Structures are given as structure tokens and as C-alpha cells.
């Protein structure tokens, strides 16, 4: 029988199974890292935290309400196109995968799962959510006073520091390298507040950078798209360096996962190498697509001017 809902060492509620059950078929008996907490299987790898569920449900509800108002009367696509609405759904799905099921729970046991969680928060969810025109949907969903307040907050955030592409790029590099230092990651895995601070910093840095990149896609000023492409290349290079470090290291770099990965039936170095490949290859694809789009826009500019 599957175990009942239990609180993990970090305090989030997850479904679990007994310590003798493994995630992978044929993995053999597993020993629980913490007393009373079994190795999660995919069906039990849930993190049900109000810190995540409440904002996600609120955003999804307001976006859906705004979309319904904009599209009312048979005007589907008005204000927000169908692809943009699909981008919103995909962005929410990426956040659910990263924070609700399964990567947050499995990230306690596998570095590769933890890395997939980070890359969803940093590189996948932000461009999807921003492509969905969330301000337009939220403004349509809120009453007039709420819409005015939303626009006032957006204007207040348009300070020089937050409009700096260099600062946003450095923030992305800092969260990537800073949180993947063994001591920092160990602290985040041991402390619930630090754990959510880590995830919030990944999502915040991603939203910051991709907001500025989207602005450059819409901006007709010469050089804006090229500057965005340079920022993307800088981030991709840093991701590549860190991914290569994890992939080609000949020793485990994280004691936490050296103890826990075998309980999933994973070889420690294989798990670490897979984490590096996640950062090195699939996580770079959104940035590569963004760079190609920006460069294509920049190279097409003279033809439009002519």
C-alpha cells in the first residue's frame, strides 16, 4: 500500500511510499535518508505548498477571467492571440512541473531532477509567461481601479537599474553559479525558507532578463535586438561552462546527492553528468531561439527601412 501524505524534512506535503520502494523498476530496496520518509515514486512526487499553489491558482484564474472578457461575444483572439494564450498555459504547466510535480520532490534525491527544476524556472517558464501578454489579461480581469494600480506598479518598476540589460544578465549568471556551489545548494536543501528563496531567485532572474529581451523584440531602435542577442550569448556561455563542469567532473561534487542518488537506483556520477547535460543542451534551447529571433530582427532592419 502507498503511504499517506507526509511532511518532508523541508516541511512541504508530499505523497510518499515506504522506504523499501524504489523509483526505478529493478532498483532494489532503498533506505530512507530521513527517518520515516521514503524515496518518492513518480506517482508520489508531489509538493503541495501554499507558497506555490496560491499564486499559481490566482494567476491562472485572473488570466482566464481576462481572456474570457477579451474574447467574449465571439471575438476569440482579440487582445491576446490564441498562440499567446497557449503560451500562458505552457508557462503555468512549466511552473507546475518545477514546483508541484514531480521535480521539486525528486530534486531532494536527484541532482538531474533538481537541475531540470532550476532550468524550468529560469529558462522555460519566464519567456512563455511573458509571451502570453499577462499585463493585458490581468488588466482586463481586474476592475478599473485594479487595472490602474497594475499599470502604476509597472511604471514604478521602470527604474534605470531594472531596465539595465547588463544587470539582468549578471543576475542570471549569479543565480546559476551561486546556487550551484555545493555549500549553497546544501543550505537550500536543509532549510525550507532558503529553498524557496533559491527557487524564487531563479524565477525572478529569468523574468527580469526575458522581460528586457521581449522589450527589445518590440523596440524599433537600432541596436536593441543586437544587445539582447549579446546578453543571451553571455548567459548561454556561462550555462555551458557550468554544465561542462558537472558533466566532465570525475568525482561527485555534492555530498547530499552522493548519499541520496543511489536510493533511486542512480549512479552518483551518472546523475551528476545528466544534470550537466540538462543545463548544457535543452536549457540552452530557449536562449538559442531567442538569439536567432533577435538577430533575424536586427538583420532585417535595413530591408524594412529601405
How would you describe the overall organization of this protein?
This is Cytochrome c oxidase assembly protein. It is a multi-pass membrane protein. The chain is mainly alpha-helical and 306 residues long. It has helices at residues 50-71, 82-99, 103-106, 111-131, 134-141, 144-156, 165-179, 182-190, 192-218, 224-248, 255-260, 268-280, 285-305, and strands at 6-7, 13-14. It has a two-stranded antiparallel sheet. Helix 4 (111-131) packs parallel to helix 12 (268-280), helix 5 runs antiparallel to helix 6 (144-156) and helix 10 packs antiparallel against helix 13 (285-305). The longest helix has 27 residues, at 192-218. The chain starts with 5 loop residues before the first strand and ends with a helix.
| Quaternary organization | single chain
Q: What structural class do you assign from the helix and strand content?
A: mainly alpha
Q: How many E strands?
A: 2
How big a fraction of the residues is strand? under 5%
Alpha-carbon Rg, integer: 21 Å
Summarize the helix and strand pattern as letters: EEHHHHHHHHHHHHH
User: Biggest β-sheet, characterized?
Assistant: 2 strands, antiparallel
Number of helical elements: 13
Query: Uncertain spans, ≥5 residues at pLDDT below 50?
Result: 1-36
Helix percent reads: 55-70%
Mean pLDDT: 84
Shape: globular
Distance between the termini: 71 Å
How many separate domains make up the residues? Answer: 1
- Main sheet: which strands, in order across? 1-2
